[in-house]
Prior knowledge:
The structure holds two protein chains of two kinds. Chain A has helices at residues 2-21, 25-50, 58-76, 80-102, 108-126, 148-154, 161-182, 185-195, 197-202, 207-233, 238-241, 244-257, 264-283, 290-305, 310-321, 324-336; strands spanning 137-138, 235-236. Chain A is an all-alpha fold. Chain A has one domain (2-243). In chain B, strand 9 and strand 10 form a beta hairpin. Helix content of chain B is 40%, strand content 24%. Chain B has nine helices and ten strands. Chain B has two domains: 1-80 and 156-246, P-loop containing nucleotide triphosphate hydrolases (Rossmann fold, 3-Layer(aba) Sandwich); 85-155, no CATH class.
Amino acid sequence: MVKNKKILFIIIAILALIPIITRTKAVLNAIILLLIFATLGEAWNIITGFAGQTSFGHAAFFGIGAYTSTIVFYRYNITPWVGLILGGIIAAVVAAIMSYPCFKLKGHYFAVATLAVAEIIKQIFVSWDYVEGATGISLPIIQRSSGFAKRLFYLQFNEKIPWVYICLVLFTAVILLCSYLENSKMGYYLKAIRESHEVAESIGINPTNYKLYAMLISAFISAICGSMYAQYILYIDPFMIFSLDISMKIVLLTVLGGVGNVFGPIIGASIFIPLSEFTRIKLGGSGTGVDLMIYGLLIILITCYQPKGVIGIVQKLTEKSKKTNVGGEGKIEATSGN
Amino acid sequence: MKPLLEIKNITMKFGSLVANEDISFTVHENEIVSLIGPNGAGKTTLFNCITGFYRPFSGKVIYNGKDITRMTSYQICKLGITRTFQIVKTLNEMTVEENVMTGAFLHTNSRKKAEEIAKETLELTGLMPKKNVLGANLTIADRKRVEIARALATNPRILMLDECMAGLNQTEIKEVMDLCLKLKEKGLSLLIVEHIMEAIMPISDKVVVLNAGKKITEGNPQDVVNNDEVIKAYLGERYHAKSKKS
């Protein structure tokens, strides 16, 4: 625990310092996206890493969050802060409705079911006029001259710096929640369920309930990330928000970093997001997909040689060198500074 | 004295196969009851019926005056009946201590309390020196011990052990026997499925014998080993006849 807190502190300190060192928009943009996706990864990690229920449909919750805050603001001019919480609640309700039957399925079948549910929700949004269907929504922009208080109230900023810190706060809160969960009764129960349903039942755990709790928390956090993302890029449409791409990004970056470890998502995101942002900037339209090619290669290597992800490599190195925590922190430092 | 656990006419069928037929017996407080019988006699099936892993076809399981036949396994565990598995199911990615703590969380939400319970249980089962070993790296003897410890940590009134001595060497068997007696002293009731007669006979208060899904007999260990039908079930007709002659 103490070691974990140290690592966490270092990661957050580095991310907090980056805006002071550089104000390049591209770098800050990468940091913001990195934080949003790392938070999403944390959310996904609760249901998949801890409870062992692979979800390929987290874009659904992400999208519901994005759409709720946007609609609430676009139609009724209510602050996105309200929409953000509301989105979380709606996503949690949707998660409960979809997971209850899906939890009867095991392993791959559950994963396929979540994928299907996400696609269904996407189709609903595509043909739903109230949410502007396939056209998508451009968020109304508040006056350029508005003061900071008003900007914060409507979650729209001219600069990227406030976004970095808002996302950093969100990420910190979520990672703290996750490490708390991991070491609580719920964490132990979820891990027991992941390893064996029968053992879980034999020692008095109701697997369905605990999986459901995990799913609700996961969906809630994902939806908040969705709202943040929508407020940040100020335009959403169903094809972009509910895309399989986003579901997969969440899965892949967590797998790369380390499934079931609270530091997995941030490590994965620190590699993946800068990689995709900078290949996009350097190569432009002709380079679309280059990041995915490199990333695919990384994933293949990781799954073949170290299924525990980068975290697993770090753990092995630290075990080898016997210098317990020095090596681990060094590696994380290097990757998050990407 | 009223029995703590009462199994009443349990019948369990898988399709046309009758795995348990009309089985009844009781377990009293502070009693070690063992369930023996040749392979395929339906002992594990009966275990699964009692603990809610299977729904019995007919019959009733009464615990402490309460009908628990239709309850789920986790509800039954909460009431105070915990089982172990014949094919050990250690939580591989958790350490021994974490394995036991998972069980200890049943009646508490506090991590500290769970750690205390786990510590006590680890000491009782002699697993303290291995508490930081990952489940995946344990030997079979230790896995069986973890299995018992994890079940014990849920603080049951009846502990059901499914072949927890199979595959152990003499010393290890002796340790498990001692543990069983220690638990009895602490006031627990034990229901044990076991094949190793020399281990089970000395510690049992009552032996229930199953064969081909039916209960042949029950009684104290001495009577049971001399029972004709039991010898027949274990040694076969021919040897039964021979043993008669001599």
